[in-house]
Design goal:
heterotetramer, A: 272 residues, alpha/beta, seven-stranded mixed β-sheet, six-stranded antiparallel β-sheet, 32% strand, globular, B: 320 residues, four-stranded antiparallel β-sheet, 18 strands, disordered C terminus, binds flavin-adenine dinucleotide, binds flavin mononucleotide, binds FE2/S2 (inorganic) cluster
């Protein structure tokens, strides 16, 4: 566990917030798709638990600066308190946690990153790593409305191709992000493609289904409630075809084929 | 040089280097915490609840945070006693801390079968029986909600156990003293108190339970006042030691339980948000003793003072 | 113009303009809140518990804050039923809200005597019996901890009462359904659930109880999950309406109880930190209904959906 | 209830903090010895209750500026969160509350204000009102050590006489404030004196006893736990010779002769 001082805090539209923290321990070794458990120091007991947040970015090359950023969408008390922090405040963090994306078979493939809402936070490091390795990377980014799109410039700066879909049509294509995904799945042979997705569960379910129809490899980064983040509470189980798996240690990234989507419990009503 | 402070306590014949343990289901099999600190610093820890066979646990929707607390219905997911003995226990050898095996069964036979399996394991110092689960042979009544069943299961286990037997009681009863006395009479060596309180939360947008199991166990600071009271009540009604559990996160919290009558404490939910919480309590207790001139932590146990207070002369006639 | 939303509910034959009431002991005699808002906006409120004679209450050290909750042992300080009728009730005349008189006695005779006194008061819409207090004639057993005593006191009051009788249950029991059914059989018109949970806190520096009475009642958001579960359980086991109480501070909290099966709710501790909390819940429920396309709030009561979930094919064999 | 924006926040030694809030509703009518219940807006539920704090100062003449200040000693989570507020943050307040000091018989008497620690907060308005009315006012101020003395300059600015006692002798007389009080009680005839005191209970008990020995009128401003502040929780009872009384509505100021000091419950171990 580390205590990390806040070194920057920037508000974005759509209740999004970028928090920069100095933490060499985490910044120096976080991999794409990993996350931290972040909490307020020395606070009273409500909120009680730390909050899971993807490592949005770390310095490049690693080790240079030790600043890591978190992209936070304010949805409840925990995220509100984190977003209200100012320079000099401290955050208590555990991490990096989770398996992260598997890029061992990414070489030579077209990587299609499909992000929804604040799910974008989980794929920035992935985009950067893949494009630095010289792979072809596309970001397909969906949101309710234009102002919910956050971090677009960071991806554009990487020089990767970015396409946007908004449900209300206020930017990019109108409709769900799956609409702009489908043409990709048609355009390339299945074995030349790799899909990585993070976003609301209904979106990931739809992306998984599409990828499976086209027999394309797809990794999903799931979101579940988490109490600990390091495999002891057993609260973050995900139903997979063979067993329950822990999102925090076995995941949060799973092969889309393994996940049994569960509309009853996976909060589409909350974060969607 | 300051006077040395003794934090050691003795429970059920075992000497603990300090009265700080961690609670079942919140500390994995101990190994998960070695990355955070040297678990040999603890008095001991309780394993995740072990059943005869491995259990997959409940479907997702297992936890939900509530004000100063959390609900959980993990469904007692665990590797099973065999895998614990073969995969976990050997890796715990290097750590100089007491391993308390928390066990549960759906019948008395399951309880004794698990006990038999653990009897030959020297690294297990004691058993902690979780009797807050339904007894299938008795039609699903919880062992812990029926004093007779409580007596029977505890007696059956103490008869076959080669190790001290602690019983972890459910707090969801009208008079917990009856259960504590049943345990004592059945030969239990200590009482662990409390397990979680039954609760529930609703997703008001989807009008569904937040937890797949509908009801779940409430833990965390929210329940601390309830747990302190039960510990105080039980400590006054049995001779065997009581181990206090429920919402302990800081030294102050641990002291509440000790002063109210507990011989030792366990930290549960606090391990999630601060994996170092138990270690901090060990250090904090030492500082407390030092600054309050207490040589031996056992002096604190049950040292709660209650005394008379002045009342207004006309209070009884009630003009307030 | 948006469709009108009906928040009105009927309980024990009384029509409430909305299902939002305030809880006994947290709203004084109603008058104390008129400086903050027009209490006619509420469905109703419950008075501070009334006894036959005035009571001075407990010595200082009556309250203590705990995580997301508070302990209180006020000792049922109140002006007595006579002073209530003569000094408070007339001043409540102008307010178009239902006054529920919360009453308690130390014997069945005291309960019926208070009922007799309130029978002729038209401004009192219903009685709420607080049976979480020791019955001195039965040697101090709490009425609310014994199903037979519960039955007896409720039957005695319903027989003499000219008004609907609600019974407020203690949550500190193993199976609350037994008590709820006893109330129903004894003729109660509604169940108010829950009263406070018994708890305790320790001043660790002075090693004294924080509350002069040693034990005290825990209220506030900390207990909400426990209360929601009890309301859900009782609503499924009796026909008479249930009024949900326990840690409600926001519209979301109130909805949890309604969806779980309550016909109405009461806000207690929330009135202390935000005297306008109940009013905000009235407004919030209206917005919720509007945005969820609900015409009539009674549609929500007990609308909790539970349904099956997929399980991994090998889960039963437990390889998790 | 009012929402008041923070317009200033200043840290002092000894964990003391001065918070300035814009609230015409309260600033325009608060009287000496009254208090407010102050809480964080829209926070999670721990801390749950508002905190009782004396109105330290309001503009003079009243109505001019609408800024009120609170002098806060950080002793636990509630006071820590209040002290951490910054300009632009909001505080939710109920007030002014309580009876305040009775100055109806102060005319022509020597007023001796005896304050201990942050109890000083309750007597500044009193000192100002009395000295503005031309009365002779003395402040006797006790604390553990020099750095716990706060607000001294404000009293000196009023032109009143100030004497200080610290337990460690780091400023003023060494010892308890009662030591510097005793000479006053001897110097003047009893009916020419009026004592007003606010501080830790053991101090007030000692002051009351001294005043009573010398038959001098004494008003004490007591501190009890409070849940509501406006007379409904009945949690703030004070034992008086005739009955329990509520600190929030009947008090916090009581005639010292009426109070039955209760060492068992009145937190000498906590704030002393
Ligand atoms: C691996 C992982 C990575 C993540 N990465 C990010 C990230 O990079 N950025 C990010 O912003 N988020 C991320 N999340 C999500 C983030 O963890 C949650 O948004 C956060 O924990 C919410 O905490 P909160 O206290 O703000 O809201 P909570 O209090 O947890 O509430 C969340 C939502 O639930 C609702 N809710 C709560 N109780 C109820 C109820 N009874 N009925 C109905 N609704 C209710 C609230 O109103 C709110 O809308 C990630 C999650 C995981 C698991
Ligand atoms: C009328 C009135 C006026 C007041 N005016 C002022 C003022 O102007 N300025 C000011 O600073 N204060 C004032 N106070 C006091 C102030 O209200 C309290 O200091 C404040 O409520 C403390 O809140 P907290 O959350 O910071 O600390 P709390 O959490 O309430 O804790 C207070 C103290 O109790 C201790 N404590 C808590 N629980 C325990 C336990 N179980 N065992 C042992 N110790 C424990 C804490 O460690 C801490 O030292 C006033 C009080 C009243 C009644
Ligand atoms: C996620 C979780 C899992 C738990 N699993 C077990 C268990 O397997 N066996 C058991 O006896 N208690 C179990 N408990 C109960 C704890 O050991 C402890 O009694 C309870 O949580 C109260 O303590 P706390 O408030 O410090 O968490 C579990 C608690 C939590 C939160
Ligand atoms: C200070 C205080 C006094 C109370 N007095 C009474 C009472 O006189 N009669 C009663 O039936 N309940 C009384 N209660 C219980 C409340 O009515 C309510 O049932 C309980 O506090 C739970 O609700 P809450 O969590 O919203 O406060 C009191 C509660 C508090 C906090
Ligand atoms: S979050 Fe605790 S096990 Fe995954
Ligand atoms: S603080 Fe609630 S009555 Fe005084």
């Amino acid at each position: 566990m580390v205590q990390a001082p806040v070194v920057g805090s920037t508000g974005y539209p759509g209740f999004n917030h970028l928090l920069a923290l100095r933490s060499p321990e985490i910044a120096d070794c976080a991999k794409p798709g990993q996350f931290v458990m972040a909490g307020l120091m020395d606070c009273a007991s409500d909120p009680l638990l730390k909050r899971a947040l993807a490592v949005y970015s770390i310095p490049r090359p690693a080790g240079d600066g030790s600043i890591l950023t978190l992209l936070i969408k304010v949805v409840g008390p925990g995220t509100r308190l984190l977003a209200a922090l100012r320079e000099g405040d401290q955050v208590s963090m555990i991490g990096p946690l989770g398996n992260g994306f598997d890029t061992s078979r990414a070489k030579g493939r077209v990587s299609v990153l499909v992000a929804g809402g604040v799910g974008i936070a989980s794929v920035f490091l992935l985009a950067r790593e893949l494009s630095a390795a010289g792979e072809e990377v596309h970001l397909l980014y969906g949101a309710r409305r234009a102002r919910d799109l956050v971090g677009l410039e960071d991806f554009q700066d990487l020089g990767i191709q970015v396409q946007v879909a908004t449900e209300d049509g206020s930017r990019g294509s109108r409709g769900l992000v799956t609409r702009i995904l489908e043409p990709y799945l048609r355009r390339y042979p299945a074995q030349r493609l790799a899909v990585y997705t993070c976003g609301p569960n209904p979106m990931m379910r739809a992306v998984s289904r599409l990828a499976s129809t086209h027999a394309v490899d797809c990794q999903v980064s799931v979101e579940t409630p988490m109490a600990c983040g390091f495999g002891v509470c057993l609260g973050c189980s995900v139903t997979t075809v063979r067993s329950y798996r822990l999102a925090c240690t076995h995941g949060p990234v799973f092969d889309a084929r393994d996940v049994v989507w569960d509309t009853a419990t996976e909060g589409e009503g909350i974060h969607a | 040089m300051p006077d040395p402070v003794s934090l050691a306590v003795k429970i059920s014949g075992i000497r603990f280097k300090n009265p700080v343990l961690t609670a079942s289901g919140t500390f994995g099999y101990g190994l998960e915490f070695t990355r955070f600190f040297d678990i040999s610093r603890l008095g001991g820890f309780c394993t995740k609840g072990l059943s005869l066979l491995p259990r997959p646990g409940n479907p997702p929707g297992r936890i939900f945070e509530t004000p100063s607390g959390m609900l959980n219905a993990i469904g007692l997911e665990n590797v099973g006693v065999e895998a614990f003995i073969s995969d976990k226990l050997p890796r715990l050898e290097p750590y100089g801390t007491h391993v308390i095996a928390n066990i549960f069964g759906k019948s008395i036979g399951e309880f004794t079968a698990i006990t038999d399996r653990l009897n030959p394991c020297p690294k297990v110092s004691a058993l902690e029986l979780n009797i807050s689960c339904p007894n299938i042979t008795e039609g699903g009544i919880e062992f812990g909600h029926d004093p007779d069943l409580t007596f029977q299961v505890v007696q059956a286990v103490t008869r076959v156990s080669a190790k001290p037997v602690w019983v972890k009681l459910s707090p969801n009863v009208t008079d917990i003293r009856i259960f504590a006395r049943a345990c004592q009479e059945a030969g239990a060596d200590a009482i662990s108190l409390v397990n979680t309180f039954v609760g529930m939360s609703v997703d008001v947008h989807r009008r569904r339970p937040m937890i797949s199991n509908v009801t779940a166990g409430l833990s965390g600071p929210a329940i601390r006042p309830l747990a302190v009271r039960l510990v105080h009540q039980v400590a006054a009604s049995v001779e065997i030691p009581v181990i206090g559990i429920g919402g302990i996160a800081t030294t102050r919290d641990a002291l509440e339980f000790l002063i109210a009558g507990a011989r030792a404490v366990q930290l549960g939910t606090a391990n999630f948000s601060d994996p170092l919480a138990s270690l901090k309590v060990v250090q904090g207790l030492e500082e407390y003793c030092r600054s309050h001139g207490i040589r031996d932590i056992s002096q604190i146990s049950g040292s709660l003072r209650t005394r008379e207070r002045p009342v207004p002369s006309r209070a009884a006639s009630g003009d307030a």
